[in-house]
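This protein record is not my work; I was only asked to verify it. The record follows directly below this note.
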Amino acid sequence: MRLPRPVASLVVALLACGTDDKGPADTSSGEVSLCQRDDVETPQQAVALPPEGAAGQLCPIGDSDWYRITTAPNDHLLHVTLAMDGDLSPVEPVYVVWATDAAGFVSDVVAATPPQAVGFPLDEVHCVAPGTYLVAVRDDGEDAEDFRRDYRLNVTSSPDPDPAEPNDDLAGAVVIDGSATGAIACAGDTDWYRFEAALGQVARVTLTMPVGGISPLLRLLDADGALVATQVNPGGTVRATNLVLEAVLPKSGRYFAVVSDDDGRNADPVTTYVVTVELLDDSDPNEPNGHPDVATPLTPTDVTCGADWSTTLERTGTIGATGDNDWFRLPIGDCEGQGLIEAEVVLLNDSLTVAERAQIASAMQIALTLVRGDSGSPCNDDIGCQALAKPCSNEWDCSGLSNTCLPDGFCAGSGVCLPEGRCGADVVQRRYEPGVAAGAESQRALLTAPLFGDPFVFLRVADYQSNGAAREVQYRLRVRVRAEPDRNEPDNVYSPTLLQDFPAAIMTSAAKPVPVHDCTDDPNDLTDVPDCCGAGTWVEGLLSYENDLDFYRYDHPCPGEDCNVRILYQLEAGPVDFVMSVYQGNSLWFGGVIGPRVEAATQAASSGSFGGTQSCFYGFAGHAGSAEEPFSYYVAVRDLATVRDASPTQRYRFCIERTSRGCDAPCKVFENGCGVP
């Protein structure tokens, strides 16, 4: 069992005191001291502590009282109680327990008052070897005395109720075959149990204990003492403990189940626990793949980034235990520039009853995460990848790299160091979200996202909160990639979340320039030929991945004047419900649904126009720019979204025309522009 760490200041102070002699009565002030006095001059003269305990006074200032106790040959627990009589005293009594050498001199500190307990009545249990000890009592700060009140000290010893002791560390761990009973008998006590496991097994470790004096902590460690998994019952003093810890073992070999109090401060030598270790077979053919270092390769199937989707890559696996993360590595080195990835994970639970599927859905929600490396964040270990070496002031500075700016001003990492020596960052995560039909439907998570020219990416399959599992039910992962079909990309700042109100000023920084065609005839210029929309004038794009937003920029069509503007559009049939809006600066200037005004699984093809004199959409004379920097308007195309519709094949086209010179009827010139009468 672990012995308490010596409290340096306490040790030095007690050695400096040296004796228990309270000295002669102090009459220098004309008053007689009321302090009790004794004849103990050195620790070697310490008095034997009676079985019923002792009372004494800490007086004068700096006084220390010494006692001797000898434990029984089989006693390993030392129970110390110490408190002042009454409720109020200037003294805060503390104790130190010293081991003695053959000559009776003090040697090492084996127990002391826990720092957090100073100032309270003390009731502590310490683990010690059988032998003779000296117990010193003093005021904590040695700056107070109390000649009116006594302290009460009692020290008793007893055998350790834990049959496995000593098993206090990795070297002393005892073999566990099934179940074992033990006790956290003293502060700092830690009980270690070892077992052997084979690759492809799941460890299930359970810890049960009635309500007691500790908050039980259960840990699973590997052969090197590294943490694999942990569970804790912080309310162990008010509710019974029933911890179940399951973990997919990363390798074969020795493992340790370790039981302790959650902070090592509390003990309960009376209430025992039961720890049980079971080894279960894991049906996941990819294990171990719990870290990018051992990720399952999604090769050698062809993953060429061509004009169409690549061959679909497929793997099956299981979420075998709480905390199980399954990593898959996808090389995409031939996907030059911006590409697309589509990935889907489905829980294969069709053979289960509705009730069984609902039970799984209540405990686990399958989740799929796309992870890429940040070339600017080199790493050697996972702990250095909680944040990237990329400064930020807002989430948009972290676009494509977690989209999360931490309070310390750096983009968030995914907490893993990728095998290529760079920190990973979550690009996007999708999960199954159970609704009223949970159990009647399959668990499914689908993501589509841009690729940013990385030579490889990772996919992580897990339970959304890492606290559920379905060891007997397989999932199926499918992945494919292709080149980005939208030639205007990137024309937005990527976000993995659905944006109804997006920051236009940030998004428009990536907008692509498009022309305005002058469809008016200047009567004073016989050479003027109207340039209306026609063959070869259309701007074409796609909303090819989830939450894709397309931004375009056009210069003011009539600087210093009002003039009507019209936008013509053509929409192909498909799942996307197109919306087009026009911005000036950060503000919405004109907007509307250019397809049907309701969401539908598939929208029919449509075409038409908006703006012009029909709705008095115009360029405003008050929007002033300069010859060097003309004033610009921005066109945004998005999905009518409460769901994330996207399609790499459903195209839209638009063309912008200036339709009038001035504010054409029936629009009317107002002080703030051209509007409806």
